[in-house]
Amino acid sequence: MKIAIVGVGLIGGSVAITLREKKIAEKILGVDKHEGNLQKAVQLGLVDEGVPLEAAISRCDIIFLTLPVDAILKLLPSILDQVDNQVVIDMGSTKERILQSVADHPKRGRLVAAHPMAGTEYSGPEAAIHNLFKGKMMVYVDATNSDEDAFEAADAITEHLEMHTTFMNAREHDIHTAYVSHISHITSFALALTVLEKEKSQGRIFELAGSGFESTVRLAKSSPDMWTPIFKQNRENVLEVLQEHIKQLQHVHHVLNTEDYDAFYRLIKKSNKIRRILK
Amino acid sequence: MKIAIVGVGLIGGSVAITLREKKIAEKILGVDKHEGNLQKAVQLGLVDEGVPLEAAISRCDIIFLTLPVDAILKLLPSILDQVDNQVVIDMGSTKERILQSVADHPKRGRLVAAHPMAGTEYSGPEAAIHNLFKGKMMVYVDATNSDEDAFEAADAITEHLEMHTTFMNAREHDIHTAYVSHISHITSFALALTVLEKEKSQGRIFELAGSGFESTVRLAKSSPDMWTPIFKQNRENVLEVLQEHIKQLQHVHHVLNTEDYDAFYRLIKKSNKIRRILK
């Protein structure tokens, strides 16, 4: 099987590593508008060669879109225009606007919208790692709009990536990711900014930063090129959850300000219920 | 050397593990008002026996206070009353109020105020682990108020724990920890509450929770018994940083609401500077 990876970064590169390891791909072609990324991806052995998008589409059986979501939105209609029986797998982090943009496309059935809930705070081909997807969740979005054979081909790959699977519609997907992924990034960005700002006046504040701080702030290392378009496309859901989160923080502030320590205790106790979710 | 661990939880238990491994302690006595904790600590081999506080003080050379900070505040004066030449090491997470409470105590010199910047989101004797402190930072607070021999004895132990060291006064310590530790816990509590609340209406929202979410929310598993007193004692500093953090989040909200994506991009880019701090 010939595989195209359009966008040879963390996600695309990590897909390539597994498909090569498992000998699923007889050939892997890389596409990237950044020539440097493409060269690195070839050097690292992630892809066999770098080619233009059109060549990748015509020469491959499966085309992975592992690009920032603004690029997916822009390229997807013309990619489907060029598709015959190939399968296009969109791995972007937002779905509603992207899927709306090709809702009436005659080749919509060749597209499988899938979001692997896996990643790190790093980006680019050097960030690609073994087993990034193993044991993680692949979310299929509006799966009934894909041709059966296209879906089966994508799902076979998900199995090779050793992922669990779930199904939802685009609207649900975008709301849920706002709550369990996008907001986490915003809290990390804001926490980093708060502390970096304070460092200016207080100096050596980071000497005391332990693993708790690192854990809550590590997502602030995430790429603005990848994340700005995600927030743009999922703006309304993110605004809603951000509003609610600010309200929660204002409540914490109020409880502490009024020295209602019983309420503070109950508030922590209630948040402990997250133990049910996390391992 | 005989060692007393007053409060046999995550921190006290982890100190005990290392001191026993390195054969520093010929005997380790445990003190805990929760009889169950004490029994567990003996069963786990963290301490040799459980004894009352008074017995631990009179029989030991070094007394570790690894208790919630409200208990330290309450017990410290009477502990110093009972001390002759022993060294008392206070390992609490706040310092200003605790040190004020014994500022004029005739035995103040026997006290070494130290805060190991190490921990996990778990608590109790079962949470104690090997190498919890290795490579982490030990902050000595108001060290010049300790007798030289008391400080040297404490510092020898810090060396056995394989920690780095730094010095600051109580006020600096409490401000810095508000920024790089206490606020991280509040953002995690609030994030957990935000998402747990949404789950009630949206259902299976956590299916999509990946490692990013887990990382930002894991501190919400922290014990309310330990953390409520910390926020009580460090209330003013925490209120200040929380206010600033809410302002940052409101700014993010504003930028997204007005669709100023250039500003949003710059904001992420700026927060990326945290890379300088984190490994």
Task: Describe it.
The structure is a homodimer of 279-residue chains. The first copy, chain A, has 279 residues and is α/β, with parallel strands linked by helices. The first copy, chain A, folds into two domains: 2-168, 3-Layer(aba) Sandwich (Rossmann fold), CATH 3.40.50; 173-276, 6-phosphogluconate dehydrogenase C-terminal like domain (6-phosphogluconate dehydrogenase C-terminal fold, Orthogonal Bundle), CATH 1.10.3660. Chain A is 52% helix and 13% strand. Chain A is built from eleven helices and eight strands. Chain A has helices spanning 10-21, 35-43, 53-59, 69-82, 96-101, 148-160, 170-202, 211-217, 224-233, 235-257, 261-271, and strands at residues 2-6, 27-31, 49-50, 62-65, 87-90, 111-116, 137-141, 164-168. The first copy, chain A, has an eight-stranded mixed beta sheet with strand order 3-2-1-4-5-6-7-8, sandwiched between helices. In chain A, helix 1 (10-21) links the parallel strand 1 (2-6) and strand 2. In chain A, helix 7 (170-202) crosses helix 10 (235-257). The two termini of chain A are 37 Å apart. At the A-B interface, helix 7, helix 8, helix 9, helix 10 and helix 11 of A face helix 7, helix 8, helix 9, helix 10 and helix 11 of B. Chains A, B: It comes from Parapedobacter composti. Chains A, B: Keywords: Oxidoreductase.
